[in-house]
Structure formats: C-alpha cells, structure tokens
Specification:
Blueprint lengths: L7 E4 L13 H10 L3 E6 L5 E6 L1 E4 L2 E5 L5 H8 L2 E6 L8 E12 L2 H15 L6 E3 L2 E4 L2 E3 L1 E4 L3 E7 L2 E7 L2
Antiparallel strand pairs: 1-13, 2-3, 2-6, 4-5, 5-11, 6-7, 7-11, 7-12, 8-9, 9-10, 12-13
C-alpha cells in the first residue's frame, strides 16, 4: 500500500533500549489499518480533556472516525479540532502502541464518504453499515459526521525491545 512518508523519523534514545531501531512507518500504517479500537482525546470548552473509545479506519494517509452530532466529542470538536488518537496493546512486553496527533477535519465529500462507509462495513461488519446523505453518514439515530485526522506527529512505542519512535509529517 502506498502511503505518505514522514518528513522526519527519530528514535528517542532516552526511552529506547540500546538494541532498538526506529520503527517503520509502513509497519505503523499496517497496525493502524488492522486495529479495531482507538481512544480519541478531545478538549472540552473549559479546557478539561475528554477521552473515549471508538472505531476508526485508515484511508489515504488519514485516520477516520465518526460520532453523533450531539455527542461530547463532536461538541468539543466544534470548539477545538486538535485531537490525539491512540491504539495498541494492553501488554507490557509485546506489541506496539501508536499515538496520532493532528487536526480533526470533517469529511463531507460524498464520494470519499462512500469509500469510508464501505471500509467501515468491511472492517466491522454489517452492524456498522452506513448510507451517505448530505455530507455525512446516515445512521440508525440520524446524521453521523465523519472526521479525518492526517498525522502531524505520530509516536510508536515498541515493547520488545522497548523504543520510542517519533514520525513528523510536513
């Protein structure tokens, strides 16, 4: 799968085993594509953080998620589009955790939304079938805005050996 390469890849020796090497962005993209659960962090209007699990799909160099129009995360995004998405494993000695930092941009292009709806259903099953209408997914409970986050900065935390890789994008 072709993808946008980071402008800078850096292994942080302060948090990495001496045997560690910088993580591959291509491997990170594979993990982002295959991961089922992500944690989204947004900022409430009063500055407090809000964290919630959700489903997401990777497509064309961005991670996409959706949410109901009146859910806390969308209300937060109306005030501040800066987000963090995380995924990984809940184990100490194996796997890799990934952190994506960027701006959540609402996707309204109906052709792109159609592609994303098909990806959602293929990845998560028929319970996650969406029609596309008026620049959003149409769900059981009404319109569902879709947001894409192209990484500005991403971190990979490998666990065997321990390492921290930072990828920065132009």
């Amino acid at each position: 799968m072709a993808h946008k390469e980071p402008a800078d890849t850096h292994l942080d020796p302060r948090y990495s085993d001496p045997k560690a090497v910088a993580g591959s962005w291509a491997d990170a993209v594979t993990r982002l594509t295959e991961a089922e659960i992500f944690w989204l962090t947004t900022v409430r209007p009063d500055g407090r953080p809000h964290v919630t699990p959700l489903l997401a799909v990777w497509r064309r160099d961005a991670l996409y998620f959706s949410s109901g129009e009146r859910e806390r995360k969308v209300l937060n995004l109306n005030e501040n589009r800066e987000v963090v998405l995380t995924t990984g494993t809940n184990t100490l000695d194996e796997g890799q955790d990934l952190v994506i930092e960027g701006e959540a941009v609402q996707e309204t292009d109906e052709a792109r939304l159609g592609e994303l709806a098909a990806l959602w259903e293929r990845k998560y099953g028929s319970d996650w079938h969406f029609e596309v209408r008026d620049g959003a997914f149409e769900g059981k409970w009404g319109p569902v805005p879709v947001f894409g986050v192209a990484p500005r900065t991403a971190f990979g935390f490998a666990k065997d050996p321990y390492s921290q890789t930072r990828w920065r994008f132009a």
